[in-house]
Amino acid sequence: MSSTAARPSWGGRLLLTPGLVLYLGVGGTADRHAHHAVQFVWVSGGTADVMLADRRVQVGATLVPARVDHAFEAHGRPLALLLVDGHGARGSELDRRARELAGEDLSARLSHLPFPSVELSLDEAEAWCRNVLLALGVESTGTQAPSRPTRRAIAYIEQALDGVPRIGDAAAYASTSASRLSHRFSEEIGLPFRRFVLWTRMKRAVEVARSGGDLTEAALAAGFSDAAHLSRTFRAMFGLSPSLLLPFVELTGTPWSDSSPLAQ
């Protein structure tokens, strides 16, 4: 291919749930970057060229640890790309596995799993993610059904995004102690309280962008100081630009969808 040939473009679906982002679609080029999420890459029908720190590998599937410089080229092939927040039990366990297996071709570990269709329903996508994490040796693949105090706390967070949601105020709203609520969040949601607040801000920004708001409107509605603050946070978490992705994100995740009935 000529060096002047156009690089394959991205196109597909982007699903967001607390602590996890899943992209399904055509895989293009990702220039060198690093982010706080642990990354899993799986290409169908061939291999991807992955630059991991100073090492280049050709793999069908691999893991990239959090905060490690990397780049890849998927050559326009079907791609499943999973980004998992490195905080909490699930993310920490996956990051440990990623550091053990970084650069290895993990295709054989996934031979019993179907490559995901871009047409997966939201429930099917969540189930597929759990199965992939299990195949990669991560036992903490999911979360428990949120208890009523946790759902009350999530409703409080949704209401308090204009300011700074605090765990003490959330605990009072949920009629429990701050220490107990902190434990519940880690156990039931799979993320620390403050990290879940950040993901809920991302959710709010997605909602505003999908309803037609620009980046500044999305940032302010989600409690960021300005569009630049949202962009820095988005890139630090995922290595991606919010202006390109926010209008196309689909939201999933029981903790968010179950919070509203308990808001009162």
Q: Just name the CATH architecture of the largest domain.
A: Sandwich
- Estimated share of beta-strand residues: 15-25%
By DSSP, the count of extended strands is: 10
What spatial form do the alpha-carbon principal axes imply?
globular
**Residue-averaged pLDDT:** 87
Structural summary, described in words:
- The chain has 264 residues and is of the alpha+beta class.
- It folds into 2 domains: 11-135, Sandwich (Jelly Rolls); 148-262, Arc Repressor Mutant, subunit A (Orthogonal Bundle), CATH 1.10.10.60.
- Helices cover 39% and strands 21% of the residues.
- The strands form 2 sheets. Strands 7-4-9-2-1-10 form a 6-stranded mixed beta sheet, sandwiched between helices.
- The longest helix is centred in the C-terminal third of the chain and has 18 residues, at 193-210.
- It starts with 10 loop residues before the first strand and ends in a 7-residue tail after the last helix.
- Mean pLDDT is 87; it is low at 1-5 and 260-264.
Which terms summarize this structure?
Arc Repressor Mutant, subunit A, 264 residues, 10 strands, alpha+beta, 21% strand, Jelly Rolls, six-stranded mixed β-sheet, 2 domains
